[in-house]
């Protein structure tokens, strides 16, 4: 278990200016400059400190429960006629991959001397993971969450409150993840000295996309070792992950981006259908633009207003995508597919019945695309099961025929 | 000579710069608001190009932006409205807005249109200094547009000097690190303003964010060349049924 801190030569990693190809950068107002610049100057140095690494690894092991299992899904494999492994991020403490990043960032915030933590959340998984580490470290925690998401992810709101966090509803725009992120950024502008903003995905100004990807890279680090033990090779044929902002995918892809024999598959939320007007499939619907201080693919009107996305899954309901993924898309290094609300619901039921695992709606999007890949019987396929479905039970029950 | 430079040459002190979102309160009010401001004695106007996700703005300007977009405001409409406005308006006019709509319009095309209608400067809060310096500076200069940068109480002296050297027109000193429309205590900021004044920058300094009435305007003027009022003005006209009158009495209340 190692955080990747060596600045790599990979063309898929961030360059010294904070860009992946033409995507990335830090389009921040001056009010954010001191905080973002402090992070930029210090993140790699802090992350490569042996004391930091030891504390990070210890917490991932004893508190989060890592390494998360790589589970051979026998019945799913029989159905799709390939060797399908599930990377069980759903078994992490708090129920999703998000905690890998919040553990890392809370340790970083402590070293930067910050007293107050803010975060945005969509599905509430990142909010819960942030509230959790704030309780652990005894730091004040404020989570911004769209008022629509507060409704549809009620169990996570209750968890955050029980963990001592203040949940502030975002009531502007589409009242979802994008708007919660706006409010968190505004909070940071208004609290420039004592506050650290724990962004929950590989989005936002440089260095966030790179920093979050490095904290999440533990996912592919473990997959390599686990596959070596189970199959005799570190490399699978496919890695499949859902993409909202793209942090679980970034973590699952991280150590494979330069291994050309490993096919990377990113699955976005099609909502009611890519061309239905109710979708969040950014790579299909977006154009180059700036969202949350990052130049990336963005769903927008022809005059540059950000479009309100739609997905049944709050965690994928975002009109942008991390700049790393925009680059993976543009270069063709990753294949971008998308799954509709209905396909994802069906995939969630399928996994529940075949394997006894109720996945998060987000992760179900990745599972939904197994049927579309040209799989061969000896193909090794890793699906990143980014989270568990407890938070989505109400939605699942509503759709139970 | 650029109208902003001309203004500071003729009147170096007590500059009143008023911000209003374009296409607000009604779509076609843009130019009437600018004219009324000129008649009332304001020195400069900042027109906001509304954006769906204005990160550096508080609720008042966010709401005015949402309303302006719903009214049908967009950059191309704004340029149509401004066509010929220089026949009636002589004070410097600055466009303020976020980068994304400008990128979609096309930066060069945007600059060209600005020059055509008679815009003097730009405030693009999410355009970083480095990007400007390496990517856009020659273009903005070619079209005679002054790019105005922000500095905050947290900005280091070295960076303020760099910003000053890249800026033209004036430097926009944000009175506290905040989104627009927050009233933080002005007294606490006097140290910062005095520090700015002592730096003897090459550009004039205007203070903005939280200036809302005569008192805050006077305080700002003691350590700078003037001030910028945004949220308080937007609030004053949001339900106006007589723009001319309400703008007149707002400005009278300040100067
Ligand atoms: C379980 C789960 N998976 C995936 C996501 C999407 O985020 P990302 O694309 O950053 O992995 C979320 C976000 O809330 C989530 O909770």
From TrEMBL, chain A:
<dbReference type="GO" id="GO:0005737">
    <property type="term" value="C:cytoplasm"/>
</dbReference>
<comment type="similarity">
    <text>Belongs to the TrpB family.</text>
</comment>
<dbReference type="InterPro" id="IPR006653">
    <property type="entry name" value="Trp_synth_b_CS"/>
</dbReference>
<dbReference type="InterPro" id="IPR006654">
    <property type="entry name" value="Trp_synth_beta"/>
</dbReference>
<protein>
    <recommendedName>
        <fullName>Tryptophan synthase beta chain</fullName>
        <ecNumber>4.2.1.20</ecNumber>
    </recommendedName>
</protein>
<dbReference type="InterPro" id="IPR036052">
    <property type="entry name" value="TrpB-like_PALP_sf"/>
</dbReference>
<keyword id="KW-0057">Aromatic amino acid biosynthesis</keyword>
<comment type="pathway">
    <text>Amino-acid biosynthesis; L-tryptophan biosynthesis; L-tryptophan from chorismate: step 5/5.</text>
</comment>
<keyword id="KW-0456">Lyase</keyword>
<keyword id="KW-0822">Tryptophan biosynthesis</keyword>
<feature type="modified residue" description="N6-(pyridoxal phosphate)lysine">
    <location>
        <position position="98"/>
    </location>
</feature>
<dbReference type="InterPro" id="IPR023026">
    <property type="entry name" value="Trp_synth_beta/beta-like"/>
</dbReference>
<comment type="function">
    <text>The beta subunit is responsible for the synthesis of L-tryptophan from indole and L-serine.</text>
</comment>
<dbReference type="Pfam" id="PF00291">
    <property type="entry name" value="PALP"/>
</dbReference>
<dbReference type="InterPro" id="IPR001926">
    <property type="entry name" value="TrpB-like_PALP"/>
</dbReference>
<feature type="domain" description="Tryptophan synthase beta chain-like PALP">
    <location>
        <begin position="65"/>
        <end position="387"/>
    </location>
</feature>
<keyword id="KW-0028">Amino-acid biosynthesis</keyword>
<comment type="subunit">
    <text>Tetramer of two alpha and two beta chains.</text>
</comment>
<dbReference type="GO" id="GO:0004834">
    <property type="term" value="F:tryptophan synthase activity"/>
</dbReference>
<keyword id="KW-0663">Pyridoxal phosphate</keyword>
UniProtKB/TrEMBL annotation, chain B:
<feature type="active site" description="Proton acceptor">
    <location>
        <position position="46"/>
    </location>
</feature>
<keyword id="KW-0456">Lyase</keyword>
<dbReference type="InterPro" id="IPR002028">
    <property type="entry name" value="Trp_synthase_suA"/>
</dbReference>
<protein>
    <recommendedName>
        <fullName>Tryptophan synthase alpha chain</fullName>
        <ecNumber>4.2.1.20</ecNumber>
    </recommendedName>
</protein>
<comment type="pathway">
    <text>Amino-acid biosynthesis; L-tryptophan biosynthesis; L-tryptophan from chorismate: step 5/5.</text>
</comment>
<keyword id="KW-0057">Aromatic amino acid biosynthesis</keyword>
<dbReference type="Pfam" id="PF00290">
    <property type="entry name" value="Trp_syntA"/>
</dbReference>
<comment type="subunit">
    <text>Tetramer of two alpha and two beta chains.</text>
</comment>
<comment type="function">
    <text>The alpha subunit is responsible for the aldol cleavage of indoleglycerol phosphate to indole and glyceraldehyde 3-phosphate.</text>
</comment>
<dbReference type="GO" id="GO:0005829">
    <property type="term" value="C:cytosol"/>
</dbReference>
<keyword id="KW-0822">Tryptophan biosynthesis</keyword>
<dbReference type="InterPro" id="IPR018204">
    <property type="entry name" value="Trp_synthase_alpha_AS"/>
</dbReference>
<feature type="active site" description="Proton acceptor">
    <location>
        <position position="57"/>
    </location>
</feature>
<comment type="similarity">
    <text>Belongs to the TrpA family.</text>
</comment>
<keyword id="KW-0028">Amino-acid biosynthesis</keyword>
<dbReference type="InterPro" id="IPR011060">
    <property type="entry name" value="RibuloseP-bd_barrel"/>
</dbReference>
<dbReference type="InterPro" id="IPR013785">
    <property type="entry name" value="Aldolase_TIM"/>
</dbReference>
<dbReference type="GO" id="GO:0004834">
    <property type="term" value="F:tryptophan synthase activity"/>
</dbReference>
């Amino acid at each position: 278990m190692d955080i990747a801190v060596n600045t790599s030569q990979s063309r898929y990693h961030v360059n010294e200016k904070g860009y992946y190809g033409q995507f990335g950068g830090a389009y921040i107002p001056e009010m954010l400059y001191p905080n973002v610049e402090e992070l930029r100057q210090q993140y790699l140095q802090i992350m490569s400190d042996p004391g930091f690494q030891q504390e990070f690894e210890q917490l991932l092991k004893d508190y989060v429960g890592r390494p998360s299992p790589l589970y051979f899904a026998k019945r799913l494999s029989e159905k799709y006629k390939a060797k399908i492994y599930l990377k069980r991020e759903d078994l992490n403490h708090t129920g999703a991959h998000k905690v890998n990043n919040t553990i890392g960032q809370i340790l970083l915030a402590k070293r930067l001397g910050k007293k107050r933590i803010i975060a945005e959340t969509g599905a509430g998984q990142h909010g819960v993971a942030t509230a959790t580490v704030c309780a652990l470290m005894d730091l004040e925690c404020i989570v911004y969450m769209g008022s629509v998401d507060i409704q549809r992810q009620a169990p996570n709101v209750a968890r955050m409150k029980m963990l001592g966090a203040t949940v502030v509803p975002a009531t502007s725009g589409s009242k979802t993840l994008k708007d919660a992120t706006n409010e968190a950024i505004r909070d940071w502008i208004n609290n420039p000295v004592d506050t650290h903003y724990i962004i929950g995905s590989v989005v936002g100004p440089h260095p966030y996309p790179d920093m979050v990807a490095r904290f999440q890279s533990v996912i592919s680090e473990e997959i390599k070792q686990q596959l070596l033990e189970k199959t005799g090779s570190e490399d699978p044929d496919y890695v499949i992950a859902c993409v909202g902002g793209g942090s679980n995918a970034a973590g699952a892809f991280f150590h494979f981006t330069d291994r050309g024999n490993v096919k990377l598959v990113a699955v976005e939320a099609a909502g009611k259908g890519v061309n239905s007007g109710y979708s969040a499939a950014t790579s299909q619907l977006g154009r180059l633009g700036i969202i949350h201080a990052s130049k990336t693919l963005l769903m927008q009107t022809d005059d540059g207003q950000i479009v309100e996305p739609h997905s049944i899954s709050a965690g994928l309901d975002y009109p942008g995508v991390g700049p790393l993924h925009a680059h993976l898309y543009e270069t063709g290094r990753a294949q971008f597919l998308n799954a509709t609300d209905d396909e994802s619901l069906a995939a969630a039921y399928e996994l529940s019945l075949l394997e006894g695992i109720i996945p998060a709606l987000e992760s179900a999007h990745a599972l939904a695309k197994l049927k579309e890949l040209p799989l061969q019987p000896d193909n090794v396929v890793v699906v990143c099961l980014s989270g568990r479905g407890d938070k989505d039970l109400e939605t699942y029950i509503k759709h139970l025929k | 000579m650029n109208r902003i430079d001309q203004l500071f040459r003729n009147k170096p002190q007590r500059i009143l710069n008023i911000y209003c979102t374009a296409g607000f309160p009604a779509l076609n009010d843009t130019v009437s608001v600018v004219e009324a401001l000129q008649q009332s004695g304001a020195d400069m106007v900042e027109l906001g190009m509304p954006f769906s996700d204005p990160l550096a703005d508080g609720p008042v300007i966010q709401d005015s932006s949402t309303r302006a977009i719903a009214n049908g405001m967009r950059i191309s409409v704004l340029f149509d409205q401004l066509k010929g406005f220089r026949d009636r308006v002589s004070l410097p006019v600055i466009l303020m807005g976020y980068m994304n709509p400008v990128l979609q319009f096309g930066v060069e095309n945007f600059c060209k249109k600005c020059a055509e209608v008679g815009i003097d400067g730009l405030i693009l809060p999410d355009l970083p200094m480095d990007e400007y310096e390496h990517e856009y500076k020659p273009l903005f200069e070619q079209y005679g547009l002054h790019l105005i940068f922000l500095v905050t109480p947290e900005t280091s002296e070295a960076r303020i000097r760099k910003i000053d050297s890249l800026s033209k027109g004036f430097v926009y000193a944000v009175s506290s690190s905040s989104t627009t429309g927050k009233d933080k205590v002005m007294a606490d900021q006097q140290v910062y303003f005095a520090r700015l004044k002592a730096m003897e920058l090459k550009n004039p300094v205007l203070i903005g964010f939280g200036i809302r009435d005569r008192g805050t305007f006077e305080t700002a003027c003691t350590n700078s060349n003037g001030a910028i009022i945004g949220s308080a003005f937007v609030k004053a006209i949001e339900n106006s049924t007589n723009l001319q009158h309400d703008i007149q009495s707002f400005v009278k209340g300040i100067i």
